[in-house]
Amino acid sequence: MKQGKQTYRMQTPVYIAHTFAIGGPYEAKGSFGQFFDYVMDDDEWGCKTHEKTEIKMQKHAINGILEKSGLKQTEIDCLMGGDLLNQIVPSSFSAREFEIPFTGMYNACATFAESLAMGSTWLQNGMRNVICTVSSHYATAERQYRYPLELGTQPTPASQWTVTAAASALLTTDACDAPVIESVTLGKVVDLKCTDANNMGAAMAPAACDTILTHLRDTGRVVDDYDLIVTGDLGRFGMDTLRFLAKQEGIMLEDRLNDCGAMVYKKEQKPGQGGSGAGCSASVYCAYLHRQLCDGAWKRILFVPTGALLSKASSLQGESIPGIAHAVEIVKEN
After folding, report:
1. What is residue 185's three-state secondary structure?
2. SS3 label, residue 294
3. How far apart are CA 65 and CA 264, in angstroms?
4. Among the residues of 163-272, which ranges form H helices?
5. Distance (Å, rounded) from C-alpha 49 to C-alpha 58?
């Protein structure tokens, strides 16, 4: 059911029944390393290229969900998700290993939220089980968007570290004692003409602000209705920018706001402004946030992954960086 301009409330409960997260060795040293279902021994993980590693990561995350749930491939109506690479190769190449219908998604680092939103909508229309899977890899993203690691290019102070992780979530209409997706707010593409490809936080913060404010207006909720409002991968600078933008609109986010990119690494790891990548918000949710909801630490969160819609070509051609953010309202009743 549509609520307001951009928000859709679920009429049939959609449960996030199971999650699975795999992280790289650098991520294992971060804030949530102990919560990953699997940690890779190294960034290559026995593969000849990092791109092949990312494919292997996605396959492992999908198999992890199937094993946790006890479901057969034939019981999954759709596998949906994406990654950051051209033609979302890791996602489509991993999907070829499964006898499950596949729909590729791309909204940059907001792809996990897009998958949760689309999966929830499809479950309102006859589907029963959907797996949402995304991934990112530091080395593949650097090659795709910036420079190969062999060049030894130095990061800028505003830059972030792409998270090496893959994560999956099983959405189902079968009633269970699990968090429920209550509503989703689809974001608009917002572009305030940031052109610095190394400053993703500044590029994405306006979209996050627009989506959060739209969600609050559409639902009639206020910030204090949520135990946590958590964005995707703005990093520390981007999160401060979001607080400033929201304050200009009369919304005080303050202590209710946090960011997966700002949380995922420890400061002593020196990851610049924090983490980024499609696997950033997905792995933080699947490894940690979901667990906190299940354990009763929070009852209602607003999960707002963010994406920077750029390519290496668009940046070299002088284009600015549009941003996108989708909000997923997740509730765990006692």
Report:
1. strand
2. helix
3. 22
4. 200-219, 235-248, 260-263
5. 15
In whole angstroms, what separates CA 226 from the centre of its chain?
Answer: 19
pTM above 0.90, yes or no: yes
Q: Which residue carries 């968007």 as its tokens?
A: 145
Token pair 């981007």 is found at 238
Q: Please identify which residue in the block is written with the tokens 């989506």.
A: 211
**Vertex 55: Cα angle to 54 and 56 (nearest 5):** 90
Categorize the per-residue pLDDT at 155 as very low, low, confident or very high, splitting at 50, 70 and 90.
confident
Q: For residues 179 and 259, give the distance between their C-alpha atoms in angstroms, rounded to a whole number.
A: 20
d(CA 242, CA 257): 9
In the chain, % of residues over pLDDT 90: 83
What is the C-alpha to C-alpha distance for residues 60 and 67, in angstroms, rounded to an integer? Answer: 10
CB 330 within 8 A of CB 139: no
Q: How far apart are CA 40 and CA 65, in angstroms?
A: 17
End-to-end CA distance of the chain: 25
Closest CA to 265 of 253, 254, 280: 280
Amino acid type, 20: F
> Taking 80 as the threshold, does the pLDDT of residue 101 lie above it?
yes
Non-local (6+) Cβ contacts of 244 within 8 A are: none
SS3 78: strand
Cβ-based neighbour number of residue 38 at 10 Å: 14
Amino acid at 68: K
| Residue 115 binned pLDDT confidence (cut-offs 50, 70, 90) | very high
Write out pLDDT tens, residues 216-263: 999 999 999 999 999 999 999 999 999 999 999 999 998 999 999 999
